[in-house]
Write a structure and sequence with these properties.
Elements (H helix, E strand, L loop, with lengths): L2 E4 L2 E3 L7 H4 L6 H4 L13 E3 L2 E4 L7 E5 L3 E9 L2 E6 L2 E6 L7 H14 L6 E2 H6 L20 H17 L1 E3 L10 E6 L5 E5 H4 L19 H7 L1 H4 L2
Antiparallel strand pairs: 1-4, 2-3, 4-5, 5-6, 6-7, 6-9, 7-8, 10-11, 11-12
Protein name: RNase H-like nuclease
Length: 233
């Protein structure tokens, strides 16, 4: 697993700190302090918590790791918001401040919660064992997070029809919306990976690039030959 080491000091507030520091009006106040030590917090009340962000799994969840292989939680993006999954459950952190990568915001929040004793760590091997495996049969129409309503159902039917035309197959979940990762299999070469439906449907009703995914698939000429829609352009 490729990981990025992020040395971030996580600030712990001692019991004697000012009340407004313990319960900030802005819920994101403490999170933003993880980027650097604040001069108004005594050094004795600060603890460095090095952590690193691992490569995402097939569902787009990034493990946040401390030590050699202890995962304190996972972070993922869903419809522009960033969520964390921990031993305490799932939490929506909302959107990061402008210029701040969402995964770093989420990782810093996890490190803060772990340093405060609010969550516990899980071995990386256990996290890897929990990764969802591709389904052997058809997937549901909608992703579990997508509410079942006429609009989402219609969008899902359109998306699945588009996948069939372009020789893609959903293998893990139903339609997750246009701007969320969807785990797909390329029916031309067997490649599996995350794609956005908003990218596959092309601009202004057009077709997406002949370069289907990393590795080049079977080559532009062969893609055009195997997918009739490209021959009608």
């Amino acid at each position: 697993m490729t990981t990025q080491l992020l040395e971030r000091p996580v600030i712990l507030i001692a019991p004697g700190a000012e009340p407004h520091d313990q319960n900030p009006a802005d819920p994101g106040q403490l999170d933003r302090r993880t980027a650097a030590r604040e001069p108004d917090v005594p050094a004795a009340h600060q603890t460095a918590m090095p952590y690193r962000i691992g490569a995402p799994d097939t569902t787009g969840r990034y493990p946040v790791i401390i030590g050699q292989d202890q995962v304190i939680g996972r972070a993922h993006r869903w419809s522009r918001d960033w969520w964390i999954e921990t031993t305490a459950g799932e939490t929506n952190l909302g959107r990061p401040d402008k210029g701040v990568p969402g995964v770093e915001m989420a990782a810093a929040h996890l490190a803060q919660k772990y340093a405060a004793g609010e969550i516990t760590a899980i071995p990386l091997d256990q996290i890897r064992a929990e990764v969802l495996q591709p389904l052997t049969g058809p997937v549901p129409l909608l992703h579990p997070r997508m509410p079942v309503n006429d609009r989402n159902t219609e969008s899902a039917e359109t998306a699945f029809a588009g996948l069939a035309k372009l020789r893609w197959r959903a293998i893990l979940t139903g339609f997750p919306g246009s701007d969320n990762h969807w785990m797909l299999a390329c029916e031309l070469c067997g490649w599996i990976g995350p794609k956005f439906w908003s990218h596959l449907r092309g601009r202004n009703g057009g077709l997406p690039s002949l370069h289907r995914h990393e590795g080049g698939c079977v080559g532009p000429d062969r893609v055009r030959e195997l997918i009739p829609a490209y021959q009608q352009q």
